[in-house]
Amino acid sequence: AQKITQTQPGMFVQEKEAVTLDCTYDTSDPSYGLFWYKQPSSGEMIFLIYQGSYDQQNATEGRYSLNFQKARKSANLVISASQLGDSAMYFCAMREPRGYSTLTFGKGTMLLVSP
Amino acid sequence: KAGVTQTPRYLIKTRGQQVTLSCSPISGHRSVSWYQQTPGQGLQFLFEYFSETQRNKGNFPGRFSGRQFSNSRSEMNVSTLELGDSALYLCASSAGTSGSLMEQFFGPGTRLTVL
After folding, report:
1. Cβ neighbours, 10 Å, residue A9
2. How many Cβ atoms from other residues are within 10 Å of residue B100's Cβ?
3. What does DSSP assign to residue A29?
4. Which residues in A lie closer than 8 A to residue B56 (C-beta atoms)?
5. A23: nearest Cα among A36, A10, A12
6. How far lies A74's CA from each of A23, A71, A77, B78, in Å?
7. What are phi and psi of A90, to 5 degrees?
8. Which residues in A lie closer than 8 A to residue B112 (C-beta atoms)?
9. Which of these, A50, B1, B62, B93, is most buried using a 10 Å CB contact count?
10. Contact A100/B48, CB-based, under 8 Å?
11. B109–A43: do the CB atoms touch at under 8 Å?
């Protein structure tokens, strides 16, 4: 069964606008971690933001914030004030304790930022 | 602090050959995970090593193997290469011990092409 679902294959946004990338997840474990990674065309996975299942507040890192809705099992990434350099693939991933360090990734969303 | 390094960055091999990829984690990190990324299957977990022991393995054939050395550096080996093994192989390191949900940091990847 698919554990991470990213329903948006591609998203377009104009520079300086905000954009939300969707992610839903499925787990029966009460303890888990949710991650967002950015992958530019060079291939390297760049860690953006982390949300723990027990965290009370939504995670924020600069222009990135995670809209965590635990009951709905969603962990959407919000990028404020998009920049041209934000154009990349974005992956949502989940890590469960019993999986040790294993990350389960979604299929990704390609974000294109236009001038 | 140096990031995760992977060598080589690019490899071209022919069917039937074998290949060894190397990954040096961030200093102090004891967990190394390997992932395969292809356009069709996305990002898939291969295996994870922690303190020289494989503690988790994905659903890949026995042609894929790995090991970790006492300095936490890891190698993965693919024997009897097939065309379908062409992929970006990503290594990730984590400081986490068993059950930890700390983030993983990825290397730039090794792009393997099998002809």
Report:
1. 9
2. 15
3. -
4. 99-102
5. A36
6. 6, 8, 10, 37
7. -125, 130
8. none
9. B93
10. yes
11. yes
Tell whether omega for the bond before B8 is within 30 degrees of 0, i.e. cis: yes
Q: Long-range contacts made by residues B45-50, C-beta under 8 angstroms, separation at least 24?
A: B45/A102, B45/A103, B45/A104, B46/B76, B46/B89, B47/B76, B48/A100, B48/A101, B48/A102, B49/B74, B50/A100, B50/A101, B50/B97, B50/B98
What pairing do the DSSP bridges indicate for beta strands A10-14 and A109-114?
parallel
Rounded to a whole number of angstroms, the distance from the CA of B18 to the nearest CA of chain A is: 23
Q: Report the number of secondary-structure helices (H) and strands (E) in chain B.
A: 0, 11
pLDDT range class, residue B1, cuts 50, 70, 90:
low
Residue A73 CA to residue B5 CA, distance in Å, equals: 34
| Residue indicated by tokens 């099998």 | B114
A19-45 pLDDT, tens digit each = 999 999 999 888 889 999 999 998 889
